[in-house]
Amino acid sequence: MSVFKHFLAGASLLALSTTANAVDLEVTHWWTSGGEAAAVAEFAKAFDATGNKWVDGAIAGSGGTARPIMISRITGGDPMAATQFNHGRQAEELVEAGLMRDLTDIATAEGWKDKVRPSSLLDSCTLDGKIYCVPVNIHSQQWLWLSNKAFEDAGVAVPTNWDEFAAAAPALEKAGKIPLAMGQQPWQTTLAFQVLLVALAGPEAYSKIFGEKDAELAGGPDLAKVFEAAEQARAMSAGSNVQDWNQATNMVITGQAGGQIMGDWAQGEFAVAGQVAGTDYTCLPGLGVNEVIQTGGDAFYFPVLKDEAKTAAQGELAKLMMSPEVQVAFNLKKGSLPVRGDVSLDAANDCMKKGLDILAKGNVIQSPDQLMSADSLTQVNDLFVEFFNTPSITAADAQKRFADIVASAD
Length: 410
Ligand code: GAL
Fold this sequence. Notes:
The protein is α/β, with parallel strands linked by helices. It has two domains: 3-138 and 297-348, D-Maltodextrin-Binding Protein, domain 2, CATH 3.40.190.10; 143-294 and 364-408, D-Maltodextrin-Binding Protein, domain 2, CATH 3.40.190.10. The chain contains 21 helices and 13 strands. The chain has a five-stranded mixed sheet, with helices on both faces. The chain has a four-stranded mixed sheet with strand order 8-9-7-10. β4 (126-127) and β5 form a beta hairpin. It is globular. Mean pLDDT is 93; it is low at 1-19. Bound molecules: beta-D-galactopyranose.
């Protein structure tokens, strides 16, 4: 670039840029569905407006596919500038190995401790008193998304809770619908089980099992009814031959399926399809039984880089992700709730308002990633993949295996 051109480029960026040197930053994440892509574009837009450039490193196929790739790049000496993980313990070993940048200075200067709610989100970013990530949203899994059209076609009222939904399955089937849409990515079956657990056995049982690793409770009668419901869910989802979660959401959007148990990121898909909460679809937090939400979600980590300009730009991106404007723009598209309590979400739809209301009441639990190690969760995942794909495994067999996993979990 000639000196003159360089000067011009620099001058035109001056108004926007707060960095001395504008740089490209590669950011990896697994947000590739329509709603997710729309949301991540808000981050990119805001970052590009600083004069730097967001180089999008989307990895298709959900967290289960993306995380090993991200981790091997970081441990293999080819780090990206920033990367998504879920809130919790997924990046613990990378932090312990000194591969992640300490953001404590930025967090302190920006007053994150006073702004982030619930405080568990920042705690999940903290190791030995130092802050290593920026929580960007609150995503909860405890939702049943229902297609109003599917129930209309089947001639039954839109259910208000899990039991009514299960009771409507024969009518849905008669109308040619799959009662429960379920994708085949491993985490989706585990998610469905965890949501059933919180709804039917209650949030305390969930926290005792995943947090305190209470194997007796996991093997006991309260959990037996959850496993029976999981068996029911398995039968209701037979025939939903889709892989990705958003393909399953699409079955609900188009009325081919009655409902889907899925995190609130499904809202991004309904929004992209132009559907309206309450009119086209209905959402039941806590399956209409126990209205609590899990304050899981996504956080961005910044691998240690040797390049000074990139390191400075990382800091800018971290601040920006937490800024009020970006928090609102991103979360409205993502279907998640902002991590700051001091922003207004007037544009929130009915389902997000339900989520905000539950959050305000303090009816929250932590996500499995915050409570259990990644290794133990992989074992749980494997069990539910097998259970949902093998009708010959009874509820009782699966429960016994689950209790054994909990007994040795950390
Ligand atoms: C979760 C993530 C969400 C959403 C979902 C499906 O792990 O927290 O943001 O993207 O995966 O991809």
